[in-house]
Amino acid sequence: MFHIKGAITTLVLSLFLSSLSYGNELNKLTFITESYPPYNFETSGLLKGIAVDLLIAASNKAGSPVKRGQIKVYPWARGYRATLEEPNHVLFATTRTKEREPLFKWAGPIAKTKIVLLAKNDNDVKINTPEDIAKYTVGTIRDDVGEQLVKALGVPDASIKPSSNADSLVKKLNTGRVDLWAYEENVARWFIKKNGLQNSDFSTVYILKEAELFYAFSQKTSDDLINQLQKGIDEVKKTKGQISDTLYNDILSEYL
């Protein structure tokens, strides 16, 4: 009987220590983001945004704080490939789609998102059906959800003009080098304003998809770590805020 009790005690202690070690591992993951304001962006050397602040708050709630300085900022295509191919990587803010569902593991949601086609008003672009899109040139970010959505609609590769960053696409759209820009609506308008242009000169001419943004984990990431972050996110959304009903809504109000 003594040996049984001793074995049970050892097992319980082992499980307890194991749970503590998981708590210390969340901040050992490689977190990758891009310039995608207002969800994640750098200003005056500080990384911030809805997704960044939520990650910081949720990891604190999970007992394994992630620091802003350990989050890597990569071009989207590079971060996307790394998270597909390497273990223990987390990419955000990532639109969760049917096509991407089996490629990653997920925690969230971070926020609702709307992927659209934007056009300059002067060009008088008309999109009534998906087939109409192929009549125009479409600027995209490589491996971004906007690019994936227009391809899924059957838009030929010859009509798609990929780029590595949003600033270059704003310029191309403004100067007529592309007719349309497939991107997240809030983010696109942020970059239009950043480049000194008037948002009133550009219109959403077609909605590609309404979805939600998530943290996307590489497949070879422990489910325990993903569950930890998910519990932290859920806790942030329940915790009373300082200026609104929840801490989560406090974060949203800072940027939207």
Average pLDDT, all residues:
91
Question: Uncertain regions: pLDDT < 50 for 5+ in a row?
Answer: 1-23
Tally of individual domains: 2
- Can you give the helix content as a percent range? 40-55%
Count of runs of 4 or more consecutive helical residues: 9
**Multimerization state:** single chain
Given the C-alpha coordinates, what overall shape results?
Answer: globular
User: What percentage of amino acids are in beta strands?
Assistant: 25-35%
Q: Structural class given helices, strands, pairing?
A: alpha/beta
> How can the largest sheet be summarized?
8 strands, mixed
Q: Give, in spatial order, the strands making up the sheet with the most strands.
A: 4-1-5-10-6-9-7-8
Order of helices and strands: HEEEHEHEEHEHEHEHEHH
Architecture (CATH level 2) name of the largest domain: 3-Layer(aba) Sandwich
Commentary on this structure:
By secondary structure, this protein is α/β, with parallel strands linked by helices. It has two domains: 2-110 and 213-255, 3-Layer(aba) Sandwich (D-Maltodextrin-Binding Protein, domain 2), CATH 3.40.190; 114-211, Periplasmic binding protein-like II (D-Maltodextrin-Binding Protein, domain 2, 3-Layer(aba) Sandwich). The protein has nine helices and ten strands. The protein has helices at residues 2-25, 50-61, 76-85, 130-133, 145-152, 166-175, 185-194, 223-238, 247-255; strands at 30-33, 41-43, 46-48, 72-73, 89-95, 105-120, 138-141, 160-163, 180-184, 202-217. β2 and β3 form a beta hairpin. α2 crosses α8. The longest helix has 24 residues, at 2-25. The model is unreliable at 1-23 (pLDDT under 50).
